[in-house]
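Weekly modeling sync, notes
Attendees: S.R. (lead), two postdocs, one rotation student

Agenda item 3: backlog of single-chain predictions. S.R. asked that every request posted to the team notebook include the full sequence so nobody has to chase files. The rotation student volunteered to paste the first one in as an example of the format we agreed on. Action items at the bottom.

Example entry:
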Amino acid sequence: MKVLGIRDIIGPIMIGPSSSHTAGALRIALMCRRLLAGEPRKATFTLYGSFAHTYRGHGTDKALVAGLLGMATDDLRIRESFDLAKKAGLEFSFVPAPNEPCEHPNTVDIEVTDETGSITSMRGESIGGGAAVISRINGIDVRLSGEYHSIVVKQRDAKGVLAHIATCLNVFDVNIATTSLFRERKGDIAFTIMETDDEVDESIARAIAKHPDIYDVRIVKSDRATDAVPPQTTQASARPKGFGADLSPKEAADLFEKLDFPNAAAMLAYCEKEGVAISEATCRRERCMLASNGIAVDDTRNYLAKALETMRESATGPLCDPVRSMGGLIGGEAAALSAIEESGPCGTLLARATTYAMAVLETNASMGRIVAAPTAGSSGVLPAMLLACQDVHEFSDEQIVDALANAAGIGYLITRNATVSGAEGGCQAEVGAASAMAASAACELFGGTPRQCFAAASNAIAGLLGLVCDPIAGLVEAPCQKRNATGVANALVSAQIALAGIDNLVDFDQTVDAMYKVGRSLPFELRESALGGLAAAPSACAFCQGCAH
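Predicted structure, as returned to the notebook:
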């Protein structure tokens, strides 16, 4: 199982409208590009499952083309990728195959002809929250995540090849993180994928390629590299001390084993034993995770500060400059809400939070820059709570960054033990998870204990249990925008209940398990397919009449 970090939960910083259907799709195509022998000239994308049903509404098509052009997930040019592809001489086509079986609901096959005339085919899966894996290359089942720098070697399955690759990396002082050999039959074509802690130079690829049983070598740089923020030497970025800052990778790895909390019970026990908040426990875990991978400087708080600034921009931009969404279903709602904050029934805090939540989804739906938290479809909940509380109660940015770390801890536990993907678990897995993260973060902001934070998160999940994912016309617009507003209201209520000391019969871990089981029991039509719920209502069908989603 992939080791999840803070950037996997509070992130990626990306262009909307969907973390799994836009950012994840782009990452699949970007990894594909890095495996080509030259610039792509012709591409066919065959879409399966949820991808096939909603690819236009979610910008999956634009993102796939953008990935082949080499764009990052936060590049505003993604929305113009079709025009840019034509200028670059890239022909492309899409083949939706909604009725074909596939293991994951967000799956795409890509066949690319590059400028050398070589044809490369691969299958990619977007696994939620912007993460993706390549599961097949030229007909051979593999697994390439893009989380690490990687070398992908096409070879004859013969003795000595693997040793040759490892020796070359050792000569160039590159540390190997993982090694996997994939083949169909003994002695036939095989792929070796080595993930490395260090960036790999082309000279290493040339050295590896000298072996007579090696046919091709490709370097796949980590597609998470653009998520990083240059480290700064500040008091904030230097803490917490003693948890990976001065440890060797081996010492940090040993300590990380104790801090890689498998569930809320383990995290709570640690917090209460050490007398620390969830945010602190989460940052300690992150520091050890980074140090165990040889990363000496922990820039996590700098990254969270950048994420907070992006959140603020996405929540405030539409108030002054409303933009119509891609699908035309939303645009201008946040400005209308802002105008009645003083006169409506909600009170200042809830009114402001509602405005911000709706605003972020306007930014997202117009392919603006947002922070997936934990997904793009639920990206309005957490920033709405944080920014509204900061406006009304004057919390500092440093306190808000702590709250972001708390939210990341809750999101990590949900992602590890359930899912945050609407295609897998319905909207309860997206807005429900975001609401739980916001509830816990609010609880910590207002002085709640770790036990109360977990109670608040449990309340939030319970309040939205069973919520289906039914985007009209496959667009992350309606009812998604209003559900983000509901999610932040649910979070504030859930935190208020927990801060009063009201406990739960069903604890956080059991609540997450229940959410996962409910999500798996939802029919496909109610899991981001745009085939059920409100998406199947007569007026919704009339809106998208004739569309191919």
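Discussion: group reviewed the output briefly. The chain has four domains: 1-145, 148-221, 242-292, 305-543.
Action items: rotation student to repeat for the remaining queue; S.R. to check formatting next week.
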